[in-house]
Amino acid sequence: MTLAEATLALMPMHLQVDAAGQILSAGPTLRRLVGDAATFEEAFEVVGQTPTGPLLRLAHAERVFLRTRTQPAQILRGRAVALPDGGLVLNLGLGIGLVEAIRGFGLTDRDFAPADLAMEFLFLHEANSAMTQELSRANRRLEDARSRAEAEAFTDPLTGLYNRRGLHLSFEALRQGTLHADPQHFALLVMDLDHFKTLNDSQGHAAGDAMLRHVADGLRAITRGIDTLSRIGGDEFVLLLPGLCDPAVLEAMGRRIIAQVERPVEIGGEMCRVSASLGAAISSRCRRIDWDCMAAEADGALYAAKHAGRGCIRIAAADEAEGS
Amino acid sequence: MHGLVNRAIEEFARVTYGEPVWATAAAVAGVDPRGFELMGDYEDRVTACLLSSLAARLGRSTEEFAEDLGAWVAQRPSVRRLLRFAGSDFAAFMMTLEELRGRGQLVAPGLELPALAVTVTGQGWRVASDCHVLWLHAVTGMLHAMADDYGVLAVIEVADSGILVDVPVVDFNEARPFSISDPAVGAA
Q1: CA-CA distances (angstroms) from residue A74 to A100, A198, A274?
Q2: Smallest Cα–Cα separation from B84: which of B129, B135, B142, B128?
Q3: Residues of A with Cβ-Cβ distance to B38 under 8 angstroms
Q4: Is the Cα dihedral A34, A77, A107, B124 positive or negative?
Q5: CA B4 to chain centre
Q6: What's the CA gap between B96 and B102, in Å, rounded?
Q7: Which of A123, A128, A136, A141 to mutate to test binding with chain B, by most B CBs within 10 Å of its CB?
Q8: Which secondary-structure segment (H or E) carries B68?
Q9: B22 C-beta neighbours (distance < 10 Å), count
C-alpha cells in the first residue's frame, strides 16, 4: 500500500476526482451519501460559489461547502487539495448536520473514523435532550406545586369557595373591568345563615361543616360562572354579581338563594335546615365604588334584613348611600 | 453527591418498591419526601444514609441494593442509549469504561462518576478503581445489565477493590437491537 492509498484508507469521507470531474475514489461513508454518482457534478452542487468553472478553483478556498444531490438539505464541508495532474482530493465532514445525516442516511458508528468526534457529538446531543426532558419534568412538578399553593391561598378549603383574599382580588378585578365588561354595574351581596349556631351547638362542628358545604353547593348550583362566591368566615358568605343592578331582579335572585339555602339536608341521619338573611349593595347607587363603601352599605342592609325577621333580603337604598 | 445520583436512588425506590417505602426511608434519612432537586448538590452522608435506610427497610445489604440500583439505572431507555453509544459490542464497551467519568461530565457538569481503569485478563477484564465500594457495586449492576443488553454471558463480581468480569460465552444471546439514529429501536 502506498502512502497515498493508506491516507485515503484513513478517510471514510474522502473523494478523489480527476481534472474532468470523474470520481476515481470515494470513501465508503461518502459513497453512502452520494449514491452511485460517477462524477463530481452528479454528486454535488457547490454552495456559495459561482456554479461553473474548473474544479481546481475549489482548492483555493480554505473551506468548501457541498450540497449532496441525494438529500439537498445536507451540506458537507471540507477541504480540497489540488493534485499535479489537475485532479483534486477532498476530505469532507458532516458538521452540524450530523444528527440529521445519521438519520437520513442510516449511518452507524462504523461509518466514522475512530478519530472522528461524531459519536461524542451524538452522545452529547442525546445526553442534552435526556437532561432537558428530566429538567422539564422537574419544572412541571414545581409548577404544579406552585399553582396548588396559589389556589389554596385564595380559596376556603372547607367549601372550595373563595376566601377573603380571593374575594378582595375578585372585587378589584371587577372594579377595574378585567372580570366583566361593565365595571360600573354589579351587586355585592352579604349573607349570614340563620340558626346556624344552634345547629353547630346541638349537632357538633362536623354537622356544621357539612351544612356549610351544602350551602356552598347550593350557591354554586344557582349562580352564574361569572359570579364570585366566597366564604369569609364562620357562616358569613359574600357574593359579587356582575351586571346585576335592577333592585327587582336582585330581590328575586335573593329569594331564590334563600329558598335554595332553606332546602333541608340529611346530616348524620337527621334532617337539618337553616335559613339566610341577605343584605345587598348596588354599585350604581354608591357614591364611590370601593370595597369599604360597598361593604358598609351591604352590612347595613343585612342588619335591616335581620331586624325584619330574618329569611329575607334587603337592598341598600340610593339615598342611604348618599348619606353614609 | 450530585442531585442526579440522588434522584436516581429516589426514582428507583419509588418505582420499584412504592411510595410508602420511599417515604419511610426518606424520613429516616432526613430527606424531603417530595424528592431531590435534579441539579442540586447534597452532602455525601445524605446519600449514604438514604442507601442504608432503604436497604434496611427492604431487608437487603447496602451492597445488594446498590447493585440493583446500578442495573435499574442502566435499563432506563435514555441511559441505556448513552451507554450503548460507547461501543458496538461488549468488548468495545468494556474498553471505553475508562471514559465513563468524562462522559458523565458531558451529561451534567459536576456529576462525579467514578474513575475506572480497565485491563484485559485471561477471560475478560478487570476494572480497578479507588472509588467507594458502593460505587463498585452500582457499576457491577450496570455491567450485568449491559452484558444482557449486548447478549453476552458474563460472571461479574466485586473483588479486591475492583470488579472482575469473566466472559465464558461471548455470543450467548442475541444483543438487544440498537440504532444510534433511532431511539425507538430496542426501546421497549
Answers
A1: 8, 82, 77
A2: B142
A3: 134-135, 138
A4: positive
A5: 12
A6: 10
A7: A123
A8: helix B62-74
A9: 24
Model confidence pLDDT, tens digit, residues A84-142: 999 999 999 988 888 888 888 888 888 888 888 888 888 888 888 888 888 888 888 88
Of B56, B42, B62, B30, nearest to B2 by C-alpha is B42
Extract the C-alpha cell encoding A2.
502506498
Q: Tell me which DSSP letter residue A287 carries.
A: S
Interface of A with B in 113-152 (CB under 8 A): 119-120, 122-124, 126-127, 130-131, 133-135, 138, 141, 145
CA distances from B80 to A109, A286, B183 (A): 16, 70, 10
DSSP designation for B41: B
Name the amino acid, one letter, at B66: A
Q: Which of B7, B78, B85 sits opposite A119 (nearest CB)?
A: B85
Structural contact between residues B79 and B73, judged by C-beta atoms closer than 8 angstroms: yes
- A98-113: string of b/e by CB count within 10 Å (b at 16+)? bbebbebbebebebbe
pLDDT, one tens digit per residue, over A189-241 is 999 999 899 888 888 889 999 999 999 999 999 998 889 999 998 999 999 99
Look up residue A288 and give its three cell numbers. Answer: 364611590
B39: contact with A, CB 8 A cutoff: yes
If one counts every other C-beta atom within 10 angstroms of the C-beta of residue A94, the result is 25
Map grid coordinates 431511539 to a residue: B183
